Amino acid sequence: MSSTPDRTSGTALRSSKSADMRATIPYIDDFVHMNSAAGSLADQSVLTAITTHLELEARTGNTEARLAIAADLETLYSGLAQLTNVPARRISLADSHTSAWQKAFQAVPLGAGDRILVSETEWGGNLSAIWWRSRAVGAVVDIVAADSAGAIDPAALSAMLDERVRMVCLTLAPAINGLVNPIGPIAEVLAAHPAWLFVDASQAFANVVTDLSDPRIDVATVSARKYLRAPRGTGFATYSERFLDQICPIGLDQTSGPWRGDQPVPISGARKFEFMETSFAVRMGMKAAVDVALGRDLAQDMARIAELAGHARSALAELPEVTVEDRSEELSGIVTFSHARLAPSRIQSELRRQKINVAAPQEPYAPLWIRAGRPPTTRISPHAFNTHAEIETAVAAVAAL
Q1: Cβ-contact 194, 281 below 8 angstroms
Q2: pLDDT of 85 above 50
Q3: CATH entry, 11-39+297-399, from 3.40.630.30, 3.90.1150.10, 2.30.30.280, 1.10.10.10
């Protein structure tokens, strides 16, 4: 899995322009959007694709409309294959990261005494599913020791591996911290171990990474509404060959498990993890977002995101009541900071009144991280369409509180 390009801020990156992206994003000048880690701003072509399909459904009927776009939907898989460097047969579409992750997780056999290893910054939604199922089957959840910034320590992970470890789960770019977990060293540690490696790449994809082809990653899941700039209600997953060979989803329908003779038989490839029923309007919106991404230099866009995040961290660090909480060796485009007087929810609401969108992550985002005594933080997450002037506007708004 290759990571970001050179993140060094320099003349070439400083001269990078976001005007071409801004020109095709509706209403972008009406507010300052610094919340792409939650959901980014879509291109006009995405909105057009959705409304066009809804109009087609109205004119012809929704089943007939689905049949009419069947060929277009196939190009969505091939487009994702180009972006991720993963063959299309190993990619499934989903209505969210959560549905993709949970369907894969629930399919993995687990029993009493089996161990699941998680990171301190694991996404709360994943943790809820892990805890609930582990309680039901008698499995054990263990937390991998982290470094001082909160990133998984590969050496600690290696020391925890034994024959009982069935799964290792990590969120590559957490929702509550600017760190990036060291996926390369983690994959190396697991190279000779049979445990399934689940990678939550929801905030990471098109932020710090696009290539998901590392064969040691068994499941990688993405929420497409974030840095890929697709509509809400879209996501996808990639799978290793061994996962597809050995694991079958618990839930099947008439397309993922059609009847052959006297029983249903799961189809080959990743689409056995899909259900046919979905919103095809938002799928067409997702296709439009993928087409936009294919037409851009995502390495340059990710470098731009890193540049803007670096600017935000530097400017925030100059404020007397603010502490920037991102201290990892490798950082994502997510910026988090604490305030000596103000709670994150107060900062979020005050900035929202000024039409500046930021986030205030709460305990459900990362329960283990919060319960370890970490300070509550406000989150700023720019995209390549943001400008340095917008960073200054957001920081000035924080300074004025």
Answers
A1: no
A2: yes
A3: 3.90.1150.10
Enumerate helices (H) and strands (E) in the chain, giving the number of each: 15, 14
Sequence-distant (6+) residues with CB within 8 A of 5 are 299, 300, 302, 303
Beta strands in 240-371 (DSSP E): 259-260, 263-264, 322-324, 335-339, 356-357
Torsion of CA 171, 161, 215, 209, to 10 degrees: 20
Buried-state track 345-377, b at ≥16 Cβ within 10 A, e below 16: eebbebbeeeebbbbbbeeebbbbbbeeebebb
Domain covering 46-294 assigned CATH 3.40.640.10 in the classification: yes
- Going by pLDDT thresholds of 50, 70 and 90, the confidence category of residue 16 is very low
Which residues have a Cβ under 8 Å from the Cβ of 10 and sit 6 or more positions away?
A: none
Supply angle C-alpha 386, 234, 20, rounded to 5.
25
- Residue by residue, DSSP assigns 306-318 as HHHHHHHHHHHHT
d(CA 79, CA 59): 28
Segment (H or E) for 102 = helix 97-107
Judge whether 316 and 322 are in contact, CB under 8 Å: yes
Residue spans per domain, the chain: 11-39+297-399, 46-294
- Joined together, the tokens standing for residue 367 give 């329960």
Q: What is the mean pLDDT of the chain?
A: 94
Which of 25, 19, 35 minimizes the C-alpha distance to 383? 35
Phi first, then psi: give them for residue 25, nearest 5 degrees.
-110, 115
With cut-offs at 50, 70 and 90, classify the pLDDT of residue 334: very high
What is d(CA 160, CA 67) in angstroms, rounded to the nearest whole number?
A: 50
What is the structure's pLDDT at 12? 37
Token pair listed for 278 = 């979905």
Strand partners, 259: 264
Contact of 64 with 53, CB cutoff 8 Å: no
Question: 106 and 136 in contact (C-beta within 8 Å)?
Answer: no
d(CA 339, CA 239): 41
